[in-house]
Structures are given as structure tokens and as C-alpha cells.
Structure prediction request, 253 residues.
Amino acid sequence: MKIAITGKGGVGKTTLSAVLARIYAAEGKKTIAVDVDPDANLGVALGFTPEEVNAITPVSEMEELIKERTGSGVDGAGKFFKINPKVDDIPDRFALEKNGVRFLVMGTVKTGGGGCVCPEHVVLKRLISHLVVQREEVVIMDMEAGIEHLGRGTASMVDRFIVVIEPGARSVQTYHLVKKLAADLGVKQVSVVANKVRTPEDEDFVKNRIPADAFLGFIHYNDDIIKADREGTSPFDAGDRIKSEIAAIKERL
Prediction:
């Protein structure tokens, strides 16, 4: 199962990504969680300490590795570099493990524009392709906020996009935009999880706007999740309610 979790900022992508990864790992499945969000906080949600997360160098910032693998900046190459660099050893070399989940931070390309063809972007795109196509394990990617990554096609080979929404019109609109762009990339499975749901009216709002075959389930507003976020701990350890709701979502995948 290769899943990319997306949505607007602050809707709960990281909570879903982390708990889903922990559930798969608790079942004994080889699982790797990948933080593709430049505002990276998946590590803490998985159970790593802030200090452990702060010590991680994102792949996009491994300058010497990128130069070595792409040939950029070597012997005066500069403008010319490999577009199919070796990346298959990167997850095993640089992913950290805790609670049965291996964790890899991708980082982002900070210069050259969203669609730049530069060594950093080539390595990231090739690495995502390797994770999705060649790794025999569950891969869960916590994508950056918004839909820009769809335009770059960095996750075009996943089995499924999960769009996390809140019970509001703008969030629902994001789902429709993601669905359209995903179809352009050839990804047919685009599902929805509704987070921060408080009332039956919230549930009805979502059910009336999201097709039943695309809807995976609700995550209700939960003070335990807020507390875990404030304490810098994993929402998986915040109580049984969040685990049972996301376990039910997993069973529908």
C-alpha cells in the first residue's frame, strides 16, 4: 500500500499519517513514513523527540550526496547532471526507526521555483518513485499543504491519495481540485477523511458533499489529540478513540 496524504494546511494530515503508520507497524507490516512537507512535524507525531527530529538532515539538504549522485558540481559539471541518479540505498542509510516505523525526511527544493529541474528536485522525485514502485513495504507520505506537489507530479505513482478535509466548503473544494489533478496524473483512487468533526451537522455536511465511494470515515474533534500536540507526543499514544477511528478508516482502504 502506497498512500499520499494531502490537504490544506492545518486539517490534520500529519495526525492521520502518523497514526496510520503506527497501526500498520503494530500489525507487523514493514512501514516507512515519509515527511514531504517543508513544515516537517511528522517525526514528533510518530513518537520521536523534538531533539531527535531537529538533528535530522532532510534529503534535499544533503548537498554532498546530491552532488555525488547527480554529478552536479563535480569536475566543473555544473549545468549538466544525471536525471536518473542512484537512490535505492537512501532509505536504508538515512531513515530512523521508532515504534516499528521507519521515518525519512525528504525536505523541499527552496530555490528555482516549484517546477524546477535541478539536482535536488531530481533526487527527491527519483526517491519518491523508488519508494512507491520498488519498496516492498507500506509507504505513507505526509505531503506538503495544498496541491502544488500534484502539479510537479512527485507522487503520481501512488496507489491512493487521501485528502484530509474539515467540514467546510473550502476544504471540500480542495478535494475536488486534488481529484481533478490526480486524474491528470493517472491516479484514480482519491479518497477523503473528514477531521475535526464535532456534531451530527458536521457529519451531514460532509456526507452530502463527498461521494460515498470516496469517503473513508470521520476523525472527531478530540482534546487528547490537542494535548498530545502540545506535549510533543504521538497522537497514537493519546488514547483509544483516535486509534479506533483511524483503524476503521484503514479497514476501508
Observations:
- The chain has a mean pLDDT of 88.
- The beta strands are 2-6, 31-35, 96-98, 101-105, 138-142, 160-165, 190-197, 215-220.
- The radius of gyration is 18 Å.
